[in-house]
Amino acid sequence: MAGILDLDLVAARDALRAREISSTELTSAYLARIEATRDLNAYITVTADKALAMAAAADARLAKGEAGALEGLPIAVKDLYCTEGVLTTAASHILDGFKPTYESTVTARLWDAGAVMLGKTNLDEFAMGSSSGTSYYGPPVSPWRSAQDAETRLVPGGSSGGSAAAVAGWAALAATGTDTGGSIRQPASFTGIVGLKPSYGRCSRWGIVAFASSLDQAGPMTRTVRDAAVMLTAMAGHDPKDSTSAAEALPDLEATLESGVKGLRIGVPREYRVDGMPSEIEAIWARGIEWLRDAGAEIVDIALPHTKYALPTYYIIAPAEASSNLARYDGVRFGLRVEGGSLAEMYANTRGAGFGAEVQRRVLIGTYVLSAGYYDAYYRKAQRVRALIRRDFDEAFRRVDAILAPTSPSDAFAVGANDDDPIKMYLNDVFTVPASLAGLPGMSVPAGLSARGLPLGLQVLGRMFDEAMVLRVGRAIEKAAAFSARPAMLEGV
Amino acid sequence: MSLDKATVASIAALARLRVPEDRLEAMVGDLNAILGFVEQLDEVDTAGVEPLASVTGHALPLRDDVVTDGGYPDRVTANAPDAAGSFYAVPKVVE
Question: Is residue A426 part of a domain?
């Protein structure tokens, strides 16, 4: 069927239910597209046989009228989610050959809803990065190219860069991501797709390779806001196996999607106007504000005074938690082992060989800030500033229903750029990290193109557990922006 | 404050991470840049502010203290680089 890849998640769902297409047909089209886009390096592992078997089972259920919410829809999984019997790498050498004997809760929920797994997508090693360039499997590449320079390969953002490249390049109908400091939202912005980081606790973290446990959150990466609502509904839910997963009931996200923003109060944080912000980022933000005002929202100037301290806070808390979580990679229970003269030497050799440079930096920083004598000065201090950042948001959300900000301070940069300057790379997350520290839901929605013809996203933030409001405001932006640009590589597909 | 090579080497030892001598210098530079960046937090007055460890505000749930899972050592050790029966095998630690 011509144009089958052109269907978004909801359109494909409806076409499957109407029996206009089959899951086998749809899945085969995506597997062919994955082969045609190998240059994107979006996938670490493609599970073609599994995908076709799942598609056949989905077709059988569709025929019997027993379709689940995502029945027959082929999606990609960030290679940070454990998938039973399928190589799970976290894009790290240290997990060489690791095939989990269990399935993450979120992916299990997706398969229970009938979704079909296409494969596991590339990412920054242990999700640490903003370009996906720290992957042991080589960098994934964005399907987009600059209008002025079609040769230079651009990053799809990170850490969920493979998922973003796959969705934007139509090598998956949708994908899962994870977001610790912006790893769903920034790649979504760079590749012109929708990326939703739910409230901390909304999705179970069980079976997702841990980076920073007080921040990590699973979420959907999709073509449309409605697709994100549908996919989150399948992913979310309380899980007794994750003691931090929330028992909050999820409202019907699709029911309020088209409610519009008339009468809503939308906050615009003045501290997000950072020095040196490119004028086109300011311009797209101003346009977003106009769209919402035109749609009947009241725009409210708000203050989030501790915004500038969010990144330094994050770069204490996240490495501290990472150094603790990554202690489990010791060459004993899974993955790589590099022998040594003693047990301690074997540990050190394995970790020295198995972790890449950025992971090593973060393990060392984390070990340092948690070490005796420095714990109070760094880690406790950062936790106190984190409380102030959360308090800023709590104050703001007394006055507004949602917050509008840019997602990222730039459009996509070249593969390899910023690789040698960790701080410069960290600055990518300046607009996404504050909500991560506060645990709040946030979504990037494609809003327009930069002067180079590359996507720029706008970010909507909401109150704790108010994904419904984030999606509703996001949908209003999506409608006003009418973003229809596509990467040149999709012409004729 | 600034870290020197010896301090970074001892942090690496604490982290059970072998950093080869020829990479130590670059690591010292990177870590000092990161520490310099995070030390902006010294400007913030946090007197009387309780540290925030959990953003949800929910108390951790308790469950009955009973075994709910397990009994499959072969699955647990399935990914071990070296296993003997139901045990992980490691280099000899006791002479």
Answer: no
